[in-house]
């Protein structure tokens, strides 16, 4: 085990703070995980840790060691210093640096009748995290992010997904490449759209299906609308014409799961 870190000027501490920036995460190809539950899910998802910082005043080293299995990864940190690197208050006294994975369309493994959820141009990390949590709950085959404005390893994505970013197969690609991949795999494109659309509950989701969601501000691009096999809508009963993207995704995805008899 490493010696106790007592200074915020320690190079390892400075590096953790630097990883709050997306550019630094990309350059180092690593990211930060906070919390025992998230660490456990990351291990289940096959992620590899470079180091695990912990505060001995909050959590016992043996508890972390039983999870990560390698004492050489453990770095004890004084409580005052740990509080400076912790992104949220409920970390449970543990924070890890893990290696990023690749997220290519070709890496995805699908069932014979897949259900895929696609987000175009998602901007808010909290929305992406909430959608990933829904995807995990529904057991979708994959979540594909097209032309993203945020990254999978943003701390808010990990926090709001409650670690489901590690349990849900994810990929990132351009809209054009994703459309080509869907057509190659004979997956129907069902695009959420406010005009000339069928109510979502009238659509047959039992076939290989990709549910495509746009941003709350601009909706889907014309490319998706034109390439869709069918446009679908959630009928609104109030004054507004749309819902938060994570809420809308949950409504449509669970209708698809209901039609499939809640079977994976």
TrEMBL record:
Q: Which GO terms describe its biological process?
A: methylation; RNA processing
Question: Which InterPro entries does its entry note?
Answer: Alpha/beta_knot_MTases, MRM3-like_sub_bind, Ribosomal_eL30-like_sf, rRNA_Methyltransferase, SpoU_MeTrfase, tRNA_m1G_MTases_N
**All copies of domain tRNA/rRNA methyltransferase SpoU type, residue ranges:** 115-253
Question: SUPFAM superfamilies, from UniProt?
Answer: alpha/beta knot (SSF75217), L30e-like (SSF55315)
Q: What Pfam families does the record tag this protein with?
A: MRM3-like_sub_bind, SpoU_methylase
Keywords carried by this UniProt record: Methyltransferase, Transferase
Looking at the record, the residues that make up the MRM3-like substrate binding domain are 10-96
Q: Which GO terms describe its molecular function?
A: RNA binding; RNA methyltransferase activity
Tell me which family the UniProt entry assigns to this protein: Belongs to the class IV-like SAM-binding methyltransferase superfamily. RNA methyltransferase TrmH family.
PANTHER family for the chain:
RRNA METHYLTRANSFERASE 3 (PTHR43191), RRNA METHYLTRANSFERASE 3, MITOCHONDRIAL (PTHR43191:SF2)
Provide the protein name. Answer: RNA methyltransferase, TrmH family
């Amino acid at each position: 085990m490493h010696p106790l870190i007592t200074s915020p000027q320690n190079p390892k501490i400075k590096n953790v703070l630097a990883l709050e920036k997306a550019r630094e995460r990309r350059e180092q190809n690593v990211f930060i995980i906070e919390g025992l539950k998230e660490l456990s899910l990351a291990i289940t998802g096959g992620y590899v840790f470079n180091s695990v910082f912990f505060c001995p005043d909050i959590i016992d080293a043996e508890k972390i060691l039983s999870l990560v299995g390698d004492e050489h990864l453990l770095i004890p940190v004084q409580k005052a210093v740990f509080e400076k690197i912790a992104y949220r208050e409920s970390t449970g006294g543990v924070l890890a640096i893990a290696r990023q994975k690749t997220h290519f369309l070709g890496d995805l493994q699908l069932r014979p009748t897949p259900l895929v959820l696609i987000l175009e141009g998602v901007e808010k990390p909290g929305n992406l995290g909430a959608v990933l949590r829904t995807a995990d709950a529904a057991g979708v085959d994959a979540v594909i992010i097209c032309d993203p404005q945020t990254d999978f390893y943003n701390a808010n994505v990990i926090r709001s997904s409650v670690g489901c970013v590690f349990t849900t197969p994810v990929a990132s690609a351009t809209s054009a490449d994703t459309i080509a991949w869907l057509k190659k795999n004979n997956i129907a494109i069902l695009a959420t759209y406010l005009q000339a659309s069928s109510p979502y509950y009238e659509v047959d989701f039992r076939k290989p299906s990709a549910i495509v969601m746009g941003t709350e501000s601009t909706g889907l691009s014309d490319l998706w609308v034109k390439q869709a096999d069918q446009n679908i809508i959630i009928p609104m009963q109030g004054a507004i014409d749309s819902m938060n993207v994570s809420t809308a995704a949950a409504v449509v995805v669970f209708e698809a799961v209901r039609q499939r008899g809640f079977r994976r």
